[in-house]
Specification:
The chain has about 230 residues and is α+β, with helices and mostly antiparallel strands. Helix content is about 25%, strand content about 30%. The relative contact order is 0.12.
């Protein structure tokens, strides 16, 4: 769906006093830029949630289900199955894998469809078990902490140190759309900012925490969290 249309549609919902569906982080930034502060609230299913719902007065009806399977499941397999069932990503929130348990937040309007049709992932039979929506509220994601000594916050400088390659290779990846910052395409001269989320194809997803120290040679020490 066209980004401009999707943003306008969600902004209109808020202006009419309604709530949005689940918004990914890119959409949240775009919608937030179109709204006045204090005119909406943000619903997060858990404190570290990536997807959120914007609303005015009535909280959205969100349900939490555990996906029960006798076999190991992969995040991309779960998303792939939901896609094959024609379920729009705005209908469900984050999918969490915690100690071989699988959880999904959904809007109540797709509950019956999901219970009827979401019974297999690849060749693995699954069951859906509803649990209290606040069960995982205090859950915080696990990250690998990385500290780097770099000369600047420029994206090509930081990422070349991060994945041990040249700045030229990083710039190639940016031009080839293999690197996204806050779910958008950055410029090669972009300076990373605190709490930027970025991903590098085949290397993973990261959160940039920012500068935590300086060295005697006027370099900076930056901290990055890698999603596990």
């Amino acid at each position: 769906m066209n980004d401009i249309y999707t943003v306008s549609k969600n902004v209109e919902k808020i202006l009419n006093g309604n709530c949005t569906n689940f918004l990914d982080q890119k959409l949240q930034i775009q919608v937030k830029n179109k709204l006045k502060k204090g005119t909406y609230k943000i619903y997060l299913p858990y404190i570290d949630s990536e997807k959120a719902i914007y609303y005015v007065s009535n909280k959205p009806n969100v349900l939490l289900y555990e996906i029960v399977s006798n076999n190991k499941l992969l995040h991309q397999e779960i998303i792939g199955t939901l896609f094959s069932l024609g379920i729009d990503p705005s209908m469900y929130g984050d999918i969490l894998i915690i100690d071989n348990h699988y959880y999904i937040y959904i809007l109540d309007i797709i509950e019956n469809y999901l219970l009827t049709n979401f019974n297999k992932i690849k060749n693995n039979k699954i069951e859906l078990k509803q649990i209290d929506v606040n069960y995982l509220y205090n859950y915080e994601r696990e990250y690998e902490e990385i500290e780097l000594i770099v000369s600047s916050n420029r994206i090509d400088t930081v990422l070349s140190h991060l994945i041990h390659t040249s700045r030229e290779k990083i710039n190639e990846k940016i031009k080839n759309k293999e690197i996204l910052v806050n779910y958008d395409e950055p410029k090669t001269s972009y300076n990373l900012k605190e709490n930027d989320i970025f991903s590098i194809r085949r290397y993973g997803k990261y959160k940039y925490i920012g500068v935590i120290n300086t060295t005697k040679k006027d370099n900076i020490v930056v901290k990055i969290l890698k999603y596990k």
